[in-house]
Amino acid sequence: MNANCSMIKNATVFFFFMILSTAFCTAQKSTGIKSTTEFTVETKAGKENEIKKSFQQFDAKGNVIEEIEFDEFENEKSHVKNEYNSSNQKIKELKLLPNGKADEVTLYEYDEKGNRISKTVTDKDGKVKSKKRFVYEYY
What we know:
Number of strands: 8
Largest sheet: 8 strands, antiparallel
CATH class of the largest domain: Mainly Beta
Number of domains: 2
Strand content: over 45%
Structural class: alpha+beta
Strand order of the largest sheet: 1-2-3-4-5-6-7-8
Helix content: 10-25%
Radius of gyration: 23 Å
Order of helices and strands: HEEEEEEEE
């Protein structure tokens, strides 16, 4: 085998290793759990009563894609849906009203190193309520 073929073979092996390493490092460990529901158990007059407190739904990578909190009468107090990018970073948070309509949208942006660089909150009509920008300094 000549030097060029050896160099190409080594470069191919290195490239393949880098792809596998990147895929392994960016993959989030999944628990296999699709959703969880939390109940509070209260005892009144000797009788146990379960009250639903919260619900969380997860994607296949273990990210929380939906969260619902309930009051003591099991009515919705808050309802949030989340979206993630391929690096498992939250890019959108949608707060819903009890009727299921959008109340507020939060968008997140990240730089090439994975640092959050902005957070923009808008109302249901898209009007900006607040915006934060994050700047990082490196050595």
